[in-house]
C-alpha cells in the first residue's frame, strides 16, 4: 500500500486486503441487496473476521493519511464470498467509516442479480445506505430503476421516482416496454418481503392507462409471499355485476391458503377457500365454496325457495407408501345439480385419482395402487353423484371395494407369455322401488391368459392365445335375500398378420391383412347376473381384434367369432404419413346383452374404418367411422382436422351418430366444433370458436377472442355465449377481459 500521493500498480492487485475493503464490500452488497431484492432472512450478514480475505483489484491504490481515506480507482473490483463489486472509484473514510463507490457501480450477488448505480454511499455499520441513478435486475427478468435510493435501518429501503417492469428493455431506447409501473415513491420492506408503491401509474407502451394511489406486490425474487391477489371483476345475466377478491396466505414453506370473497349484484356473496400442503410423501389440495341463498333463475331472480346453505367441495391427495405402493383420495361433491353452472364454478371433470368424473357425474374415491416391472395392483372405494335430471341417487352405487391384481410371468411358458389376473367388485345401493329390483351384489373373478407370437413362412406373424376364467357372484335377488353362484369361462384362438412392404424412392407402402379367430364357451343366460361394467362400449377399429369384445367381467361373448381387417400405411421419407384401416367381425350366434349400440347385436357387425393423415404443421386429419354392413351407410363418423396457412390456423371436429345408436338421448346426434385463429400484427391474434348442436340447431357455446401476448404481457378480450337450457339455468352471454402482467399477476374476470 502506498503512502499519500503514491500509487501501486496491478501487480499487487491480489494482495489480501484489510478491514476497510471488507467493510466496503459488505456495506455495498448489503445496502444494494436491501434496495434490489428481498432476502430470505431479516438480518444482514454477520461481520467477517478481521483476517478474512477480500480480493481487491485496481489500477491504483492511494492511502491518504492526512485525509484519513483509502482510495482505489481505475477498474476497481472487489470480490468477497461469491459477491463482486465494480466501480470506477472507491473511497473509504477511516475516521467516519463512510464508504463511497463512484462511477458505473455494479454489484453482482451469488444468486445472479445485478445492481447498477452512478454512486453508492454507506457507513461501515451498514445502518444507512444511499444510491443515485440506481438500476437493478431483480428475480426472473424484473428490472427496477430509481433516481435515488435510501436504506433506512436494516429492514426498509426507500426509492424515489421509481419505474419497474418485467419486460425486456429496448437498448436503443426508441421503444418503451410493453408495460411499466411508475411511482413517485416506493418502499421495499425486508420483513414483509414486499415492494409498495405510492402514487403509481400503470403505463402500456408508454401511455398512462391506470392510476393507483397504492399498490404492493412481492419482491420478484421471492417465489411465495402473503398478500392480496388481483381481483376478478365482471358481469353476467345471472349474478349481475360482481367483484371477487382473493387473498393468498403463505402459511409455511410447505402449505398455503387462498381465501376469496365474491360479491354479486343480484345474489348473496360467495366465499371460496383453497388449501394446499406438501408432505414428505406427497401432497394434498382442498377447494370449497359456500353461500347462503335461495334458488335463482337465468336472470338472477330468486324462485321463492327457502334460503339454504349451498356448497361445493373438491379435493385430492396422492402419497407414496413405498417403492411399490401409493395411496390417495379424490373428493367431488356439490349441494345440487345446478350449483356449479349457477355460480360459474370449475372443478368437475378433473383427474383426482384413477377414475375421472364428468360435468354430469361426480366421483369421490379412496384408492391404493401398486405397480412394479411385471405386476399391477389396485383397490378403490368409489361413490357417485349424478347431476342430470333423470339420475336416481338410489341406483348410483357405492363401490366397496373395486380391486384388481395383474401379474405377467417373465419366464416363458410354452414359448409364450402368461398373464394372471384377479378382480373383485362389491356394489351397495338402495332400491328405488320402481321397476325390476336392483340391490347389492358382489363378484370375484380369477383368470389366466396365454399368448405366443411366432414368425414363420414368408414373414407371417402367427399368435395363438388362450384364456381360462372363473367368476363367483353374490347377488341380492330380493330384499335381504342373497344367492351365491359361479360360472366357468374359457376361450382359445389365434391371430394371423401378414405385412407386405413396398419401398419407394419418395415413400414406403405397408399393407397388413389381419385375421383373428376364436371360440369361447357358452355363458348361460342367467337373469341374476346384471351387466353393470360393460354398458358403454362399442366395437371399433381399436378393439376389433380383441378375442372377447366385452371389455370387463359381467358380459361375456360366447361361441365362435372371426375378425378380419386390412391396414395400409404410406410413409414419406420427409416425415409425412397416411394410414387407413377397414374391417368387421362375424359371430356364429347372437348373445344376450350385446346391442346395436355396441355394434354386436347380430351375427355380423357393421364395418369399422379409420384414417389418419399427417402432413406436418400445415395439415392433419383423423377420422373413425362405422358403416352399415349392407348399404355402407354411415352410422357414425368422428372427423377431426387441423390446418395452417400463413397467418391462419384452424381446428375442427364433426360428429354424427345415428339416433338409434345413442346410449344417452340427451346427447346431440350431430355436432360440430371449430376454432379459427388469425395472427395479426406483432403479438396480436384473433380466435373464433363454435360448438353447435346441429340436431337442435342451437349453439352449445361460441366465443370471439382478441389476444395479445409477449414475453411479459398477456391481454385477452373475449365474448362468450351459450344457448343451452338445463333446469332453471338457461342461455347466457358474457364479456371477459383479462390482463396478465408478469410478476404482478392477472387482472380481470368474466
Secondary structure elements and their pairing?
Blueprint (H helix, E strand, L loop, with lengths): L18 H18 L18 E3 L2 E5 L4 E12 L2 E11 L4 E11 L5 E10 L4 E11 L3 E11 L3 E10 L13 E11 L4 E11 L2 E12 L8 E2 L3 E5 L3 E13 L2 E10 L5 E9 L3 E12 L14 E13 L4 E10 L4 H4 L18 E11 L3 E12 L11 E16 L2 E13 L12 E11 L2 E3 L3 E19 L2 E17 L2 E3 L4 E14 L38 E14 L4 E11 L19 E8 L4 E9 L6 E12 L2 E10 L12 E10 L4 E10 L4 E12 L3 E10 L9 E10 L3 E5 L1
Antiparallel strand pairs: 1-3, 2-3, 3-4, 4-5, 5-6, 6-7, 7-8, 8-9, 9-10, 10-11, 11-12, 13-15, 14-15, 15-16, 16-17, 17-18, 18-19, 19-20, 20-21, 21-22, 22-23, 23-24, 24-25, 25-27, 26-27, 27-28, 28-30, 29-30, 30-31, 31-32, 32-33, 33-34, 34-35, 35-36, 36-37, 37-38, 38-39, 39-40, 40-41, 41-42
Amino acid at each position: 500500500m502506498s503512502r499519500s500521493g503514491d500509487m501501486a500498480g496491478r501487480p499487487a492487485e491480489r494482495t489480501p486486503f484489510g478491514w476497510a475493503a471488507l467493510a466496503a464490500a459488505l456495506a455495498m452488497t448489503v445496502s444494494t441487496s436491501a434496495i434490489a431484492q428481498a432476502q430470505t432472512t431479516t438480518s444482514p450478514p454477520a461481520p467477517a473476521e478481521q483476517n478474512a480475505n477480500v480480493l481487491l483489484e485496481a489500477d491504483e491504490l492511494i492511502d491518504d493519511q492526512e485525509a484519513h481515506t483509502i482510495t482505489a480507482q481505475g477498474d476497481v473490483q472487489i470480490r468477497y464470498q461469491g459477491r463482486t463489486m465494480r466501480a470506477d472509484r472507491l473511497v473509504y473514510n477511516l475516521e467516519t467509516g463512510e464508504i463511497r463507490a463512484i462511477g458505473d457501480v455494479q454489484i453482482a450477488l451469488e444468486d445472479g442479480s445485478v445492481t447498477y448505480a452512478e454512486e453508492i454511499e454507506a457507513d461501515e455499520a451498514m445502518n444507512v445506505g444511499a444510491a443515485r441513478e440506481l438500476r437493478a435486475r431483480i428475480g426472473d427478468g424484473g428490472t427496477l430503476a430509481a433516481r435515488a435510493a435510501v436504506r433506512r435501518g436494516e429492514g426498509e429501503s426507500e426509492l424515489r421516482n421509481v419505474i419497474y417492469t418485467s419486460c425486456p428493455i429496448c437498448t436503443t431506447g426508441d421503444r418503451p416496454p410493453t408495460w411499466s409501473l411508475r411511482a413517485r415513491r416506493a418502499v421495499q420492506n425486508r420483513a414483509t418481503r414486499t415492494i409498495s408503491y405510492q402514487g403509481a401509474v400503470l403505463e402500456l407502451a408508454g401511455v398512462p392507462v391506470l392510476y393507483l394511489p397504492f399498490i404492493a406486490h412481492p419482491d420478484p425474487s421471492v417465489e411465495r409471499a402473503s398478500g392480496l391477489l388481483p381481483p376478478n371483476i365482471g358481469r353476467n345475466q345471472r349474478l349481475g355485476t360482481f367483484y371477487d377478491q382473493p387473498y393468498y396466505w403463505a402459511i409455511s414453506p410447505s402449505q398455503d391458503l387462498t381465501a376469496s370473497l365474491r360479491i354479486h349484484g343480484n345474489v348473496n356473496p360467495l366465499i371460496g377457500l383453497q388449501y394446499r400442503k406438501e408432505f414428505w410423501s406427497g401432497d394434498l389440495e382442498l377447494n370449497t365454496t359456500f353461500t347462503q341463498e335461495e334458488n335463482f333463475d337465468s336472470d338472477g331472480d330468486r324462485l321463492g325457495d327457502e334460503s339454504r346453505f349451498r356448497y361445493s367441495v373438491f379435493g385430492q391427495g396422492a402419497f407414496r407408501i413405498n417403492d411399490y405402493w401409493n395411496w390417495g383420495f379424490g373428493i367431488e361433491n356439490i349441494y345440487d345439480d345446478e350449483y356449479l353452472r349457477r355460480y360459474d364454478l370449475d372443478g368437475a371433470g378433473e383427474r383426482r385419482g384413477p377414475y375421472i368424473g364428468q360435468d354430469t357425474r361426480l366421483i369421490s374415491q379412496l384408492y391404493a395402487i401398486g405397480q412394479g416391472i411385471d405386476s399391477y395392483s389396485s383397490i378403490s372405494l368409489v361413490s357417485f353423484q349424478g347431476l342430470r335430471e333423470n339420475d336416481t341417487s338410489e341406483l348410483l352405487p357405492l363401490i366397496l371395494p373395486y380391486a384388481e391384481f395383474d401379474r405377467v410371468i417373465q419366464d416363458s411358458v410354452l414359448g409364450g407369455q402368461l398373464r394372471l389376473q384377479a378382480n373383485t367388485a362389491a356394489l351397495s345401493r338402495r332400491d328405488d322401488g320402481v321397476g325390476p329390483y336392483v340391490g347389492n351384489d358382489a363378484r370375484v373373478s380369477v383368470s389366466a391368459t396365454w399368448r405366443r407370437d411366432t414368425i414363420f413362412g414368408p414373414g407371417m406373424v402367427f399368435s395363438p392365445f388362450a384364456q381360462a376364467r372363473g367368476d363367483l357372484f353374490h347377488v341380492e335377488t330380493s330384499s335381504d335375500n342373497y344367492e351365491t353362484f359361479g360360472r366357468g369361462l374359457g376361450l382359445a384362438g389365434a391371430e394371423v398378420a401378414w405385412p407386405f412392404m413396398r419401398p419407394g424412392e419418395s415413400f414406403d407402402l405397408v399393407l397388413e391383412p389381419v385375421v383373428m379367430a376364436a371360440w369361447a364357451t357358452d355363458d348361460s343366460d342367467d337373469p341374476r347376473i346384471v351387466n353393470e361394467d360393460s354398458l358403454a362400449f362399442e366395437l371399433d377399429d381399436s378393439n376389433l381384434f380383441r378375442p372377447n369384445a366385452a371389455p370387463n367381467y359381467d358380459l361375456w361373448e360366447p361361441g365362435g367369432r372371426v375378425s378380419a381387417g386390412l391396414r395400409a400405411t404410406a410413409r414419406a421419407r420427409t416425415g409425412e404419413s397416411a394410414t387407413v384401416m377397414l374391417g368387421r367381425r362375424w359371430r356364429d350366434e347372437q348373445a344376450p346383452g350385446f346391442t346395436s349400440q355396441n355394434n354386436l347385436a347380430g351375427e355380423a357387425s357393421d364395418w369399422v374404418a379409420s384414417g389418419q393423415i399427417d402432413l406436418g404443421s400445415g395439415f392433419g386429419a383423423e377420422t373413425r367411422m362405422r358403416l352399415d354392413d349392407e348399404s355402407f351407410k354411415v352410422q357414425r363418423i368422428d372427423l377431426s382436422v387441423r390446418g395452417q396457412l400463413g397467418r391462419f390456423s384452424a381446428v375442427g371436429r364433426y360428429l354424427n351418430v345415428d339416433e338409434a345408436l345413442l346410449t344417452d338421448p340427451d346427447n346431440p346426434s350431430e355436432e360440430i366444433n371449430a376454432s379459427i385463429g388469425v395472427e395479426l400484427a406483432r403479438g396480436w391474434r384473433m380466435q373464433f370458436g363454435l360448438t353447435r348442436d346441429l340436431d337442435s340447431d342451437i349453439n352449445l357455446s361460441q366465443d370471439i377472442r382478441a389476444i395479445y401476448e409477449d414475453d411479459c404481457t398477456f391481454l385477452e378480450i373475449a365474448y362468450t355465449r351459450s344457448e343451452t337450457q338445463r333446469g332453471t339455468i338457461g342461455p347466457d352471454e358474457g364479456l371477459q377481459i383479462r390482463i396478465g402482467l408478469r410478476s404482478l399477476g392477472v387482472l380481470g374476470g368474466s
